[in-house]
């Protein structure tokens, strides 16, 4: 368990530090970047938010609030509170055209910064839980590495960076974006900002 939570945070830190991100879209307070490496596509969404970083952290680390701003979350229940900083959730996502709804069992690890210049972290990865086997009504999907880094800009503003290493399980929700027929990444980012502020 300790190893899983450590590797969860380490994987997000590693993803955030990668070089070679390409900016694909810029709005007033949202920037969207992509990073391709072999068959792996990673996504970074940078949001400027007018709330203190610790407020954004407490709201984003509580995944039971996620449905309020992210329409890709149909339901989200806590399966296990592993520790103060670690929770395991079961999440269901709406069906995409021609597919069953998807579900995910995820470990969410949160960390406060040890030093002032470090970001708050909320890291997400899929885990296997014997108590929640795959069910025939859902397509069980996997999140390799995702999460938020929250950097303080001032006492009343912060930069929230959302990362996702895209797997085939998440791709249907993002694919429409890259073809330009949908604005769901931007819309979700703007909903997130609205929710935090």
End-to-end Cα distance, whole Å, is 34 Å
Order of helices and strands: HEEEHEEEEEEEHH
How many DSSP H or I helices? 4
Basic shape: globular
Helix content class: 10-25%
Highest CATH level, the class: Alpha Beta
Give the second-level CATH assignment, the architecture.
2-Layer Sandwich
CA-based gyration radius: 16 Å
CATH fold type:
Alpha-D-Glucose-1,6-Bisphosphate, Chain A, domain 4
Mean pLDDT: 88
Number of strands: 10
- The CATH superfamily is START domain
- Proportion of beta-strand residues: 35-45%
Number of domain modules: 1
Can you tell me the residue ranges where pLDDT is under 50 for at least 5 consecutive residues? none
- The helix-and-strand class reads alpha+beta
Write the layout of secondary structure elements.
Elements lengths: L1 H16 L4 E5 L3 E8 L2 E10 L3 H8 L14 E7 L4 E8 L8 E10 L8 E7 L12 E2 L5 E9 L2 E10 L4 H8 L5 H13 L1
Parallel strand pairs: 6-8
Antiparallel strand pairs: 1-2, 2-3, 3-10, 4-5, 5-6, 6-7, 7-9, 9-10
């Amino acid at each position: 368990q300790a190893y899983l939570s450590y590797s969860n945070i380490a994987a997000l830190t590693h993803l955030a530090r990668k070089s070679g991100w390409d900016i694909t879209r810029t709005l007033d307070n949202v920037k969207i970047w992509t990073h391709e490496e072999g068959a792996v596509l990673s996504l970074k969404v940078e949001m400027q938010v007018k709330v203190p970083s610790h407020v954004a952290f407490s709201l984003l680390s509580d995944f039971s609030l996620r449905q309020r701003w992210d329409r890709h979350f149909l339901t989200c229940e806590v399966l296990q509170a592993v520790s103060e900083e670690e929770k395991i959730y079961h999440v269901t996502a709406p069906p995409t055209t021609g597919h069953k709804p998807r579900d995910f069992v995820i470990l969410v690890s949160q960390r406060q910064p040890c030093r002032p210049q470090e970001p708050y972290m909320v890291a997400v990865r899929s885990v296997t839980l014997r108590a929640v086997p795959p069910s025939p009504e859902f397509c069980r999907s996997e999140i390799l590495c995702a999460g938020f880094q929250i950097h303080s800009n001032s006492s009343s503003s912060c930069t929230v960076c959302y990362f996702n290493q895209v797997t085939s399980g998440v791709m249907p929700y993002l694919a429409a974006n890259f073809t330009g027929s949908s604005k769901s990444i931007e819309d979700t980012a703007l909903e997130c900002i609205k929710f935090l502020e």
